[in-house]
What does this fold into?
Amino acid sequence: MLDRSKSVLAAMEVMVAAQPDDAALSSFLAQHLAVVLYAEIEETVAKIIQDKFASHMNSELAEFLTVNMAGIIKRTPKSDINSLVKQFGAAVANRFNGELDDRLISFYGNAISARHDVGHRRGSNVTLPEMKTGISAAERILSALRNCLA
It folds into this structure.
């Protein structure tokens, strides 16, 4: 599902393997991956919601709603996704949350927080292995979102 992030990670792992003692390179790449992942999650959440709209209305109206709800739809923290899901009703929110556990949410949150830290000039000490776990967690959360809206 997060093909761009996974392909960037794979390329980064090759680069780090070629220079295993370069901690600065590894740190830089992990922080860059946090930004890539965040953007791809935003796009994926919007696409999942647009698909939901499109399943109940014509594609032009679905596109209109998706574009005009970008501030609501394109929020990546799990709590914001949960708030979005609640707007589809309690049953949908219960299905969504029922597919997730605290450990998964923690891994996801760490990846999202890394991007926030990078974006606000603090930088992050996130590692590539942590980002790899974050990508996996993000895929599971996005899958839960898609499933609960199906």
About this structure: The first helix runs from residue 3 to 18. The chain is about 80% helix and 0% strand. The helical segments are 3-18, 23-54, 59-68, 70-73, 78-86, 90-98, 102-119, 128-149.
